Amino acid sequence: MENYKDLETAKARHAQLSEEIEKHNYSYYVLDAPTVDDYRYDDLMRELCALEKEYPELITPHSPSQRVGGFAESSFEKVPHAVQMGSLQDVFSVDELKEFDTRVRQSLSVPPTYIVEPKIDGLSVSLEYREGMFVRGSTRGDGFVGEDITENLRTVKSIPMKLKEPVPFIEVRGEVYMPKKSFEKLIQRQEINGEVPAKNPRNAAAGSLRQKDSKVTAQRELDIFIFNIQQVEGKVLVSHKQSLEYMKSLGFKVIDGYEEFSDIEKAIKKIAAIGESRGKLSYDIDGAVIKVDDFKDRNVLGATAKVPKWAVAFKYPPEEKETTLKCIEINVGRTGALTPVAMFDPITLAGTSVSRATLHNQDIITDLDIRLGDRIIVRKAGEIIPEVVRVKEHSENSEPYHIPMICPACGAEAVRDEDEAVIRCPNIDCPAQLLRNIVHFASRNAMNIEGLGSANVELLVNHGLVKTVADLYALTLEDILTLPGFKEKSAGNLVGAIEKSKSNELDRLIFALGIKGIGQRSATLLCERFPSMDKLMSADREDIVAIDNFGDILAENVYNAMREPHRTALIERLKGFGLNMNYTVKETGKKLDGLKFVLTGTLPTMTRDEAKALIESNGGKCSGSVSSKTNYVLAGEEAGSKLTKAQQLGVAVITEEELLKMLSQ
């Protein structure tokens, strides 16, 4: 990069780079028509970031460099909506669509024109711009008050930070969604890391947008479609179609595939066509919307207390297909879990051919009474993940299916703990677990070795360069350069990332070692009690079980792991390579001191491990069961028996939002 000797010259170059990068962003993320290759784009970004490093005063919230995230908040501020972000009435049949049309025609003096458009299954947001610059973004909330998620929305690259015209003020409404490919990648990462996978793209998008750290949001590859102008100054618009075209001209990524109709029968055919195209779309939809186009007509039609009378949302039923179960394949996961996968005659669901679906565990198989040769009903959960819904008919002379208690990869005898539904291979040298173990070791929440994803790990394993995680630290630049696709720079970056990971705190290493039952939070609790690897390895069962929430089984897992010959040999190798074997004990807050919590259900923005960490870092304690000594039950969606017991005992039940309020006081 050229060295700029004065601020004014640097400022001019920064403006030029910013404009060029945003043009490329618009072409790539909005028009889906890249104008430069990745190398040229990266080169521009590197120059921009180097300029900002030399002249920090050039950094603004609208700089392209700020789209990667980094701003973290402990809570989201409330945002009152000047124009209500309402919802639509749902309809489920053609007859209901015709009834809607009849009501509209009876209320208007002239025949209506309709706009039909896909209904994106995501999270509704408001975007506000002043003088053409993005100033605030918020969630829909209850329609009247939402939450400020501006910094997280800056990471969505299809949202323009600067409009093509300096409109005095405009507020638009859009739907943030997670593209299907991004959702599939997220699921793969979560499964590799042993996390509970997101249920569908909508939940994943909503959780990503409400992350406290926008760097996490940036990694989720979210996108947006804009479909409405809430309010605008300096421009008079008379119809929905005109507003869509106007938003396009400003640089917004407008809702895709909308069409104008004056005949309800043709509009219904369009709605059906959108439904049939679901599988071919790169995003998830759950219906189609039909709206009266003319704004004056909308004013005449008005609204009820809950929904407008000038639009309805047609919801598509989930697509289910019948097929024959041919066999059940057993896959071996990173933790040794034997996962049954149904293999069936191919069927087409949501536009793609499907021939397999996970059955999760023996309990699911037993509950559904799935047998080889059965006629089964399959659907795609969230239009993405195939799942077996039910058995339609057993095959003749069929028998209940039981997962074989032998690992298919290494032949070791599998085991099932009494408190788990999972059957596992106990052999840590099982070849099926090797790749997943290394991917987990290098993952973001473990040793965080950048550039060491599953594809590169597979290359290292297949070329015989890595047989255990310790082998990563023996890799040289020359070793990596023998792999296809690696050049001097990328190989150097990987070597540097591996070297950097040596200085990680001990709790990351403990989590990375993949001890059964030890997640991020429990690894931290272990290190707070035993702040060095030597102390942990010499700890007895009684010392470990004394840690809060460490029962006999978890303590036994840790105790045995620290004495298992393969693992102790691995730890000694890692010591020899210079990895940090110590932990810096951090001070905890006192806001929840002495309070006991039980967590149940799925929380809106945090995993339960993250919620536990937050509670315990503020002096609270978490338990696995509800009793009269419990102060609060933190409940999310699909809370189970713990919520029922809390209600029976009169224990206070709180939401995630209420927990955050307790911590902000």
Layout of SSEs?
Elements: H1 7-30, H2 38-54, E1 78-80, E2 89-91, H3 94-107, E3 114-120, E4 123-130, E5 133-139, E6 145-147, H4 150-154, E7 169-177, H5 180-192, H6 201-209, H7 214-219, E8 223-233, H8 240-250, E9 259-261, H9 264-276, E10 285-292, H10 295-301, E11 311-315, E12 320-332, E13 338-349, E14 352-358, H11 362-368, E15 375-381, E16 385-393, E17 415-416, E18 423-424, H12 431-442, H13 454-462, H14 477-481, H15 488-501, H16 506-512, H17 520-529, H18 533-538, H19 541-545, H20 552-561, H21 565-576, E19 596-600, H22 608-617, E20 621-623, E21 632-635, H23 641-649, E22 652-654, H24 656-664
Parallel strand pairs: 2-11, 19-20, 19-21, 21-22
Antiparallel strand pairs: 1-6, 3-9, 3-10, 4-5, 4-7, 7-8, 10-11, 12-13, 12-15, 13-14, 15-16, 17-18
Helix pairs in contact: 1-2, 12-13, 16-17
